[in-house]
User: What shape does this take?
Amino acid sequence: APPTTNTSANTSEVLTSYTAALNTEANVRDYAIQFICNLSITTIDSIKLQASTMNYLTEATSALTRQAIMFAVSKSSDLVNALNEMVDTVSYEDVQMAVSSIAQVASNILVAVNTPLMGRGIALNLDYDRANMLPPDYETDIETVWSNPNLFADVFVVGGAYKIFF
Assistant: This one.
């Protein structure tokens, strides 16, 4: 008789391994997309290169963080605007290559945005951490002067108008 295996434990291990690999890939893609977004757009060749690179980086839609998606949207918009300015001075084939890559980036972004909304993907660690991070200027000290509610004005509605009393 073949040995019995605990399939639920194996499935759990595989899922944990997959999640760890996906989060690592998401971190790398997040960094790379931020790097690409800082590159200047100078010629049609830079547009084609950056568009094809963004296309490659956004292909794995399940490994895109919300911030990476926002950067990709911004960069795609910048590429479209730059291409629009030089469309009359470059060849049709160059424009076609750039537009094809940019359109594919847009498609990848749409899938990446909709995947978690439809409950078809996992929440990435980087997204979870960023969503639950307190802003750097958030005051958590309850002993601070600003924690005193008496410092704020009282607002009352009198006859349909707001009246502020100090």
Summary: The longest strand covers residues 154-158. Residues 7-136 form one domain.
